[in-house]
Amino acid sequence: MKPAFKNSEFSPTVPDFVDIPLYLLTFIGAKLFKWTPNDPKSKSGIILLVIFSGLTVYNFTSMMRFILFENLETLLDITECILFWGFALNGLMKGGTLLCFRHEIESILKGLIVRHPKTKEERLEFQLVPYYKTINASNKYLSIWHLSITSIFILHPVLTAIYGYVNREDENEDFDYVLPFMMNYFYDVNHPLPYAISYFMQCCSAYHMSLLFLSGDLLLISMVQLVNMHLGYLISRIESFQPTGMDADMKVL
């Protein structure tokens, strides 16, 4: 028999605050830490991590080969190359930062769990739900915006090439096998199958780097929001404190 009424109060936890950035990492098989010792290991996550890491190493090698064996003839080519490397290194730096400081991140978040408001009165004083709604909406908006830009960036070359091929004036004109990133491969990509494989690998690495620095940024924002919530509560308690000159004041302090 169902109860006559249901408690509809929403009480977000610390994991809820950082759910989106940590969830995004699971798409590339990454898991920074376990919330509890009994959290199971994901075999699919390990497989994804190995695949994405291997593809990224291969693509970084191909980008380096482009610098070594190809000529950057114009200023536009040089600018494009710098932007590509900046995009890739930004993601690599954020991923390395998450990896190196994962224990510190775990310690901070689990420390905040201990101090997380537990009663209804504390949740109201902390303004728990408004803080959570703000950061959750921001994380969703930034994720959609960022991944949409990444998708446009990596799909634009092939869509442009298809459009140009379909609307070509010369029937003998070949398809333009253009790729999103400047890379030099060990094989000729100017054929359908090698081109499709190379394009797919570049797309995987593009999303890999995007998810790394997107997750890093969102995790930082979420943790700052959590700390701000605790500081705001502390400030309000200090401002509302009325000393009585009794020993109970020390307990409150």
Automatic annotation (TrEMBL):
Q: Does the keyword Chaperone apply?
A: no
* Cellular compartments annotated: Cell membrane
Which molecular-function annotations from GO does this UniProt entry contain?
Answer: odorant binding; olfactory receptor activity
The keyword Nucleotidyltransferase is annotated on this UniProt entry: no
Q: Which Pfam families match?
A: 7tm_6
Positions of transmembrane segments: 46-68, 74-93, 144-166, 206-227
Keywords of the record, alphabetical order, are: Cell membrane, Membrane, Olfaction, Receptor, Sensory transduction, Transducer, Transmembrane, Transmembrane helix
Which GO BP terms, alphabetically? signal transduction
Q: Which domain of life is it from?
A: Eukaryota
Q: Which GO terms describe its cellular component?
A: plasma membrane
Instruction: Report the principal subcellular site.
Output: membrane
Lipid bilayer topology = Multi-pass membrane protein
Name of the protein this chain belongs to: Olfactory receptor
Gene for this chain: ZcucOR67c-1
